[in-house]
Please model this.
Amino acid sequence: MPDNKEKYAKLQEVIEARKGERGAVMPCLQEAMNIFGYVPQDVQEMIADGLGVTLSEVYGVSTFYSQFSLKPKGKHVIGVCLGTACYVKGSQKILDTLSEELKIQPGDTTDDGLFTLNATRCLGACGLAPVMMIGEDVFGRLTPEQVPGILDKFRA
Amino acid sequence: MELYRSHVLVCGGTGCSSSGSAKLIERFEEQLKEKGLEKEVKVVRTGCFGLCEAGPVVIVYPEGTFYSRVKVEDVDEIVSEHLLKGRKVQHLVYVDHKTHESSVQKSLNEIGFYKQQERVALRNCGVIDPENIDEYIAFDGYQALAKALTEMTPEQVIQEVLDSGLRGRGGAGFPTGKKWQFARASQAEHKYFVCNADEGDPGAFMDRSLLEGDPHAILEAMAIGGYAIGAEEGWIYVRAEYPIAVKRLEKAIEQAHEYGLLGKNIFGTDFNFDIHIRLGAGAFVCGEETALMASIEGKRGEPRPKPPFPAVKGLFESPTNINNVETLGNIAQIILKGADWFKSIGIPTSTGTKVFALGGKINNTGLVEVPMGIPLRTIIEDIGGGCPNGKKFKAVQTGGPSGGCIPASLLDISVDYDSLTKIGAMMGSGGMIVMDEDNCMVDIARFFLDFTVDESCGKCTPCRVGTRRMLEILERITQGKGEEGDIEKLETLAENIKSSALCGLGQTAPNPVLSTIKYFRDEYEAHIKEKRCPAHHCQALLNYKITDACRGCTACARKCPVNCISGNVKEQHVIDQTKCIKCGTCMATCKFGAIIKE
Model:
């Protein structure tokens, strides 16, 4: 796929630019996440080879941090905040409702590749609790009843 | 600088941005232009005002009128009424829940939420445009750095910080001046000054607001600190989840370079200082200093045993000093106004102010900055405005996953490092989550353990395995499968983990369990012995019942997924408890409020 070729070329540029820099593995993985949406094995191999570190080191880092995903994500990534403020205001019910509506467990992606459902750490918007994010959009002061309607907007 | 007769301050913090403040700014600018006011009124996107509950927030100066929950449709009215005709738009003005005071009559600083606050670290948040270095400079910005570099020796700078009594605001409360002394004493070619902006405690967002609202204050403090300990390189480790903060920091660093306030020969001296940003990638343990340094080095963020302390051997094997964002937020003021001024705020063992993030079941959610030693009750009741909907206050959780729950009986405690530690809670980073009668304390303990188990890096056994065992017991209890002796098992495990885990995360992980057992033992016992959840929260322990308010409309019976509700039309229905899966659908369906849970 020409599209993919471009992505790999872009990653190669990032790696070249960071070669020799101390602690470059994480920034490279972060860029790879931006480019590919996840970090499959061949991407990890590229980073390891490019930076001159072992694949096990890259794999170790990419499995340690929750931001790096080894699986492709859905078109819309839903993050339900399970920080304390949101939790005491009932965000678990929001997550349960989403799980029911989408028929997937937190951490999984729907079969049509449209949604990935995640339970996230505190988003820092505690004043709006309970909060969820879909992509870059923030939805605050949520009730379980609002969930289906919000999802429909992203299905259209 | 151009002069304007009015300033419209629109909060651009995360909370208000999430509720659409960027669109407000656009609309204000459009409207002002249309009315020909763009030369008279300036719109400024500021950092957080603190009162996130009322977001998006707009303040009009010089009057200090505070508009809350402003919608795009409201902008036209504010422009045409307030800014054009000089009449405050009364129905949009924020009114304090408790005192019913509003900024129609009074200025902002005199109403309930702000009256008892004292702003040192947050002084510029919500006041200046964080993306404009000139505004920071106009508010005495970089003067402290100038003073330190040109009038003080590094030792004098450290002495001033030491004398101020400033203690780390990230959680443990270690004296900042001491830390600097240790780092200064280490001899090495390279040293590093690190800012810990990996704010991971759920419910704490003061560091984010400070970075978003006043990024230059952090850069200035790092440069002062670098001068004091003898470092020429600074690192800010910031959560990737804070994109606005990262963007503003990058911009601030760029501007500071342009002005020669970072880089080579700052203020014509031979001091050089530069700052790099490194993004976190979602690991709570990276807030621990040794894990944080490993992460900057690009490795798995696992902590290591101390000693050697970072001041001796830290980042890239060199002596390193690490301070939290809010700690740094105080530095410039201490250098400018002196240690004695700083000590005059707060109490002798905990000087200065502390920023708290109020959240959960409280009317005024948001950020507050108060003098140390203030009674907890003042924060919860006067500033926070108590619990909403007339519910009864049960507890306040401080210190995040490392902290504890403080019951209503201890509300008069003084809020300072030592008093909080004494009762089994802790200052922590300053998250304060309020819980009311509907929150189950066993479930809250379970919630925190769930967090710790997930975030444990897995390096040491007590934390990796021990916290999981504790979680399993707590899960059993909340599911109604608790056994006699579970509380004692939890206590033993907790003590063992506290004394043997490698880092702060593990050592403090049992705190939420211990403090809830200490103050809410009766709730644990009710779960275990009576299979009952006093707060009616734990699903497995609830029984749904239909009362005689039932009209027999059959709505619940039709919705019940397991068909366990029976009864004739227009007669009271009954739930078969043996079949009920406690999903709560019936209760949500009933229009007559006839279904209750016990």
About this structure: Chain B has a mean pLDDT of 93. Chain B has five domains: 6-112, 133-342, 347-436, 441-529, 542-597. The first strand of chain B starts at residue 6 and ends at 11. The domain at 347-436 of chain B is CATH 3.10.20.600 (Ubiquitin-like (UB roll)).
